[in-house]
Amino acid sequence: MGNIRAFTMPKWGIEMTEGTLAEWMVKEGESFTRGQTLCLIETDKITNEVDAEYDSVLRKLIVPAGGEAQPVGALLAVFADADVSDAEVEAFAASFKAADTSVAARKSEAPAPQPEPVAAEAAASAPARIDTNRPISPEALKLAERLGVDLNGVEGSGRGERITYQDVYQASRPAAAPALRGKLDLPLSLESFFASPLAKRLAQLHGVDLAGVKGSGARGRISKADVLALIQPAASQPGAAPFVPGENRPRIEPMDKIRKVVARRLTESKQNVPHFYLRMNVRVDELLALRKTANLVLGAKASINDYLVKAAALALVQHPAVNIQVHGDTIHHFPHADISVAVASPKGLVTPILRSADLMRIDQLAAATRALIKKAQAGKLAYADMDGGTFSVSNLGMFGIDQFDAIINPPQGAILAVGAIARVWGEGADGQGRFESRLSLALSCDHRAIDGAAGAAFMATLRGLIEAPEGLFG
Amino acid sequence: MAKMMYRDAVLKTIAAEMERDSNVVVLGEDIVGGMGTAGGPEAIGGIWSTSTGLYDKFGPSRVIDTPISESTIIGSAAGLALSGKRPIAELMFADFIGVSLDQIWNQIAKFRYMFGGKTRCPAVIRMAYGAGFNAAAQHSQSVHSLLTSMPGLKVVTPSTPADVKGLLAHAIRDDDPVIFLEHKALYGTTGEVPDEDYTVPFGHARLARAGQDVTIVTLGLMTGFCEGVADTLAGEGIGCDVIDLRTTSPLDEEAILDSVEVTGRLVVVDESPPRCSIATDIAALVAQKAFASLKAPPALVTAPHTPIPFARELESAYLPSADKIEAAVRKTLDWR
């Protein structure tokens, strides 16, 4: 095939996944020499010049300058000596397959079925040709091809991050076995022997009794060899092979927009908003019983969470000090409760809002919630669905979480964290012991706007509404 | 292609570059050797015969015979270079850099860096160096290790007439200061020199012999010694890669590592003393970056850590010789 080489998107550092070709310094058809600058490549961190590793000709330019970002390993151009025909260059470009750029990519590739076993065997025994445009010494490349070392995980220690033989060799080796390191406290009983420090350490490590050992060193000093001779038989027994940790390279995924917004807002909230937490357990036996009946009567499929949201909404209207937003030095009080419901969507946490939840009937609230969840899971929530809100409810009960504290969703003043329902042995009103269903609630409040007493009063009302749920239909 | 002496290659390259570029000027002590004598300015022509005829051809404004003051020579070269000329300053003996070291080390080497890249200092400082002439401790030294340790300087040590032509032309055209070291014992050697105009880029070592059993890294006069040893051992079926560095700054790291990765054995041969030297530098490089390939400890064949003795017997004992190099290669091969 002559001297045809692929020029691919280089990988500078473990975090680089793609790069943008900013400028070509060599035109198609032009020849270049080793050391000459070929192009400028931009990553999100830097712009680097890429220098030629060898003399050749830029025969085919695949990726023009200024286009889209290309993944690491993507074919950018084909280099070949002048005597290589155009047809060969075209064929090379057409048949080029990007080298593996990540562990995940490699693992997802199922082994292709080989119709001819003979050919398959030949392919397996021949070293796989590695196409890389990272600087690498010839011996290092040979070793990598022979051992099948993935060069993407190898850092070059040579000048300009050139990969040396030793870099590939190290990458191919298992992690170093644990060895004698650090200070070892020797018992006094060992200190008294006339032995070298290493011999004492080995004796301590392997539990060898030095009493009666005749040292082979000068003046009968016990040496490393003497101790090793005593522990050798044990060492030669077939023991468990030393543990070799598996490869654990991360799959790097940049945050998408939603994740970035969630990260920024929650960081701001946790750093800037003085949170305090009010926790309590409420009895939900009555609520559970009522839910069955109410759902039957209303023909609704309201969940326990829907009832809790409804209860919170009603309690908020009674406690306007909690039904608020905080904007700088002002506190906005609202007549109605717009409740954000935390929903896990494929793209991360989203908090669509049930507007005027206090005015909704439970069947309306359940239907509205289901519609929002459906929209969230389809990734179709609009900005308007999530903008504003006066309070949040986050429920992890379905995952069996007993209790947790949530981070306030600014500019709101409070968020209610709902845990799982547990059957608990407790004393009933008649003084008799019995099992009851209990639910853990934790209210996170912004202390700038909500005082402990105001939060507690809200929680007391909430408890009343949940434990005597008839009030939810008032 | 013509046979040419090393010193003639120096002279002809300077003349050709002066012809090519009117900014090239030369200056140094006694470079117009006959100045003031009955025979006229060109009667003698420099003590190394590397400037004969330049004065007649280019005149006193481009061929400047200076007083005996190295700091003047190098200081003038620095000023000329800053003002757009391409000076070639000659120090008669490399040992004399001491009195001009401030100009070299603190000025020339740092101009470009300290002025934020807004100026260039395209000065070439030629020096004759090396032992073997019974010239004692102050006229025999090798200074490439010292100068290589100074960032901002390029250091060139040609070993053949062909390399003199290519490397000197490159040095004169280079926009950075270049120390060009000519070994006194090589001035009289001859070799084939291509007729056409060419330059040899810096940082590209020459593979003088290819063998694949042992890597010998060397430079200057020692290259010939090592080639001789390689040829002798080739007769026994022992192959030596002889790498002539050509430039110690920049250093062709890749050539050294590529060879050692094949051979697993390294012998560095250098005539400068061994402490903090190019030889220890290369041994360290290989220990750091090719440890996995080594089959024997790197061996150094250098002068001892002493001034160069005057007595002929002592001086020949001082310098690396073919016997010492051969012994080092064999010891490396026999390593168990």
Please give a structural write-up.
The complex is a heterodimer of chains A (474) and B (336). Chain A folds into 4 domains: 4-95, RNA polymerase II/Efflux pump adaptor protein, barrel-sandwich hybrid domain (OB fold (Dihydrolipoamide Acetyltransferase, E2P)); 103-172, Irregular (Dihydrolipoamide Transferase), CATH 4.10.320; 188-236, E3-binding domain (Dihydrolipoamide Transferase), CATH 4.10.320; 257-473, Chloramphenicol acetyltransferase-like domain (Chloramphenicol Acetyltransferase, 2-Layer Sandwich). Chain A is 32% helix and 21% strand. Chain A has helices spanning 86-95, 103-108, 117-125, 138-147, 165-172, 188-191, 197-206, 224-236, 257-272, 285-298, 304-318, 362-377, 383-386, 452-467, and strands spanning 4-8, 18-24, 31-32, 37-42, 47-51, 56-61, 70-71, 75-80, 275-283, 324-327, 330-333, 339-341, 343-345, 348-350, 353-354, 391-395, 414-427, 433-446. Chain A has a 6-stranded mixed sheet, with helices on one face. In chain A, strands 1-8-6-3 form a 4-stranded antiparallel sheet, covered by helices on one side. Chain A has a 4-stranded antiparallel sheet with strand order 5-4-2-7, with no helix packed on it. In chain A, helix 4 runs parallel beside helix 5 (165-172) and helix 11 (304-318) packs across helix 14 (452-467). The longest helix of chain A has 16 residues, at 257-272. The N and C termini of chain A lie far apart (85 Å). In chain B, helix 10 (278-289) links the parallel strand 13 and strand 14. By secondary structure, chain B is an alpha/beta fold. Chain B has helices spanning 6-20, 54-58, 70-82, 101-108, 111-114, 144-148, 161-173, 221-234, 253-263, 278-289, 312-318, 322-333, and strands at 2-5, 24-29, 63-66, 86-91, 124-129, 154-156, 178-183, 190-193, 206-209, 214-218, 240-244, 247-249, 266-269, 299-301. Chain B has 2 domains: 2-193, Rossmann fold; 206-333, Rossmann fold. In chain B, helix 3 (70-82) runs parallel beside helix 4 and helix 9 (253-263) packs across helix 10 (278-289). Chain B is 35% helix and 19% strand. Chain A binds chain B through residues 35, 137-140, 157-159, 162, 164-166, 169-170, and chain B through 201, 253-254, 257-258, 261-262, 288-293.
